[in-house]
Design a protein that fits this description.
Layout (H helix, E strand, L loop, with lengths): L1 H5 L5 H7 L9 E14 L4 E18 L3 E19 L3 E22 L2 E24 L2 E24 L2 E23 L3 E26 L2 E25 H20 L1 H34 L3
Antiparallel strand pairs: 1-2, 2-3, 3-4, 4-5, 5-6, 6-7, 7-8, 8-9
Length: 301
């Protein structure tokens, strides 16, 4: 029987079953999307206005040798935004609304790290936001305020562990409420600090928290966040990021410029003059000390 089996070819379909190929994303879409934008103002004060609308169902899934993901979106969204200013200083004012279900899940390996993310949202909500930012040569600040009204249920969880560090957190909320969130990020060349806080009021329950200590692309980040709500909610977040690459660059610049200064002929002459003056002062002090000693030796008691 075994010799007979050797002569029976394996069907190609069986090879596919025995050696499955990665499944690409298979989007299923029955949605309507519309968007428009226009630029007004002038070169000194540019203004951009945009609007977007989407409704329908979009679903997708993908699997490969290192990860898997799936998403489902059966929601209707609409938004309008106006941005005033340039890349150095600008203000954005926006309004957006959403109703329906949005869910996603993903997980897998990223190098020497394992990660997993999942979220579910079945809400009706509207947000009014204003965001301002200003920066100059790597130093800047940005502030965002979000006033919102929301009704429904949301669940979120995430995890990252491995060579990049550890980042774990999750949250859940349910009910109807209104609230305001505000955040500020101050950035220097080597580091940035982000703080945020918010308050909400309504018939709802909310709880969550997360902690992060990660090192990604030369940037070390340590952050904590927490929120708790029963009728009245408060949340506070703090995160600090240090860019070690920028520190290395700045240290190299400082070393190079210092070496230039040290080797500058004018600086060297000043240094030599200071050294000569110090030597003369030291010789004068020694001579004065010797004269005093000689004077005391001549005195007899």
């Amino acid at each position: 029987m075994s010799d007979l089996n050797k002569n029976i070819p394996v069907p190609k379909s069986m090879n596919k079953i025995m050696h499955p190929q990665p499944m690409p994303k298979q989007p299923v879409s029955q949605s309507i999307n519309n968007s428009t934008s226009s630029s007004v103002g002038n070169s000194h004060l540019p203004v951009n206005v945009s609007a977007e609308y989407k409704t329908g169902t979009v679903a997708s899934a993908s699997v490969d040798s290192h990860s898997a993901s799936a998403s489902f979106d059966n929601s209707t969204t609409a938004s309008a935004n106006m941005t005033i200013g340039t890349s150095n200083a600008s203000t954005n004012i926006g309004v957006n609304a959403k109703t329906g279900i949005v869910a996603s899940a993903s997980g897998g390996l990223d190098g020497n790290n394992i990660y997993a993310n999942t979220s579910y949202s079945d809400t009706t909500e509207i947000h009014a936001t204003i965001e301002s930012q200003a920066n100059y040569k790597g130093v800047g600040t940005s502030t965002k305020v979000d006033a919102y009204a929301k009704s429904g249920t949301e669940v979120e969880a995430h995890m990252l562990a491995g060579s990049k560090g550890l980042d774990v957190g999750g949250s859940v909320s349910s009910g109807s409420y209104i609230g305001v969130n505000a955040s500020n990020t101050t950035s220097l060349r080597e580091a940035s600090v982000t703080t945020s806080a918010g308050v909400s009021v309504g018939e709802h329950l909310e709880a969550g928290g997360s902690g992060e200590a990660t090192f990604k692309n030369g940037k070390a980040t340590v952050g904590v966040s927490g929120d708790l709500a029963v009728l009245v909610g408060v949340n506070v977040d703090v995160s600090v990021t240090v860019d070690t690459h920028q520190i290395q660059k700045d240290a190299k610049v400082v070393a190079t410029e210092t070496l230039k200064i040290v080797n500058d002929p004018v600086v060297q002459k000043v240094g030599n003059d200071v050294a000569n003056t110090a030597n003369k002062a030291e010789n004068t002090a020694k001579k004065a000390g010797n004269d005093v000693n000689k004077a005391f030796k001549k005195i007899h008691f």
